[in-house]
């Protein structure tokens, strides 16, 4: 991958749920020069274990061979629906970055509390790599989990596509769309 190329395409994925059993996943294909040239939607189960499969389906639904990277906002979305970046990277043959925005001691205690005895969920969480802190040019720090991409390249890309604050543009736009679709579905539009 060549992070310096303006045509590098990133699939940014974010989700939204509010009091529903399903969460909306939005995926936005954005070039490194911030032009949007694709979008797709999926749903996942709140509190389920189907996020990894849904992300793969979302990628496949786009039917795009020109996507260079998958960028996902959050490793445990829709109430602890754990994402496996290694499986996504292997299945799609694309590098994957999971970005989170807060320092944390992890989710082990929360998983034990909310999902006692859920060995599958706990094992899925334990397979995640440690997070790499990345200091952005905006002055903020984010945390990355990676699959199929070096730390240096991941840092370069995240810095290039974060205009201000700490949310990179592809996932910022994906989150806006996911929230809008969720609101619309709840109001019957």
Task: Note down, in words, how this protein is organized.
The chain is of the alpha/beta class. It has one domain (9-182): archaeoglobus fulgidus dsm 4304 superfamily (archaeoglobus fulgidus dsm 4304 fold, 2-Layer Sandwich). Helix content is 36%, strand content 28%. Strands 3-2-1-4-6-8-7 form a 7-stranded mixed beta sheet, sandwiched between helices. Helix 1 runs parallel beside helix 3 (85-92). The longest helix has 19 residues, at 169-187. Pfam families: Endo_dU. This is UPF0215 protein RJ53_00885. Belongs to the UPF0215 family. It comes from Methanocalculus chunghsingensis.
Q: Strands, helices and their partners?
A:
Blueprint: E1 9-16, E2 22-31, E3 36-45, H1 51-62, E4 67-73, H2 77-80, E5 81-82, H3 85-92, E6 96-100, H4 108-114, H5 119-126, E7 132-135, E8 141-147, H6 151-160, H7 169-187
Parallel strand pairs: 1-4, 4-6
Antiparallel strand pairs: 1-2, 2-3, 6-8, 7-8
Helix pairs in contact: 1-3
């Amino acid at each position: 991958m060549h992070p310096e190329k303006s045509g590098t395409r990133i699939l940014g994925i974010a989700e939204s749920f509010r009091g529903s059993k399903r969460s909306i996943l939005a995926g936005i294909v954005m070039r490194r020069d911030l032009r949007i040239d694709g979008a797709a939607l999926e749903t996942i189960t709140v509190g389920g274990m189907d996020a990894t499969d849904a992300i793969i389906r979302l990628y496949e639904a786009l039917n795009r061979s020109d996507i260079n990277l998958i960028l996902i906002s959050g490793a445990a979305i829709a109430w602890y629906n754990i994402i496996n970046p290694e499986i996504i990277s292997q299945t799609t043959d694309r590098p994957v970055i999971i970005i989170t925005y807060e320092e944390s001691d992890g989710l082990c205690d929360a998983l034990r509390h909310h999902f006692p005895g859920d060995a599958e969920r706990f094992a899925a969480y334990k397979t995640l790599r440690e997070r790499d802190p990345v200091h952005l040019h905006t002055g903020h720090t984010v945390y990355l989990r990676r699959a199929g991409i070096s730390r240096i390249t991941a840092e370069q890309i995240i810095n290039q596509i974060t205009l201000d604050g700490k949310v990179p543009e592809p996932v910022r736009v994906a989150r806006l769309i996911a929230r809008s679709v969720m609101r619309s579905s709840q109001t019957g539009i």
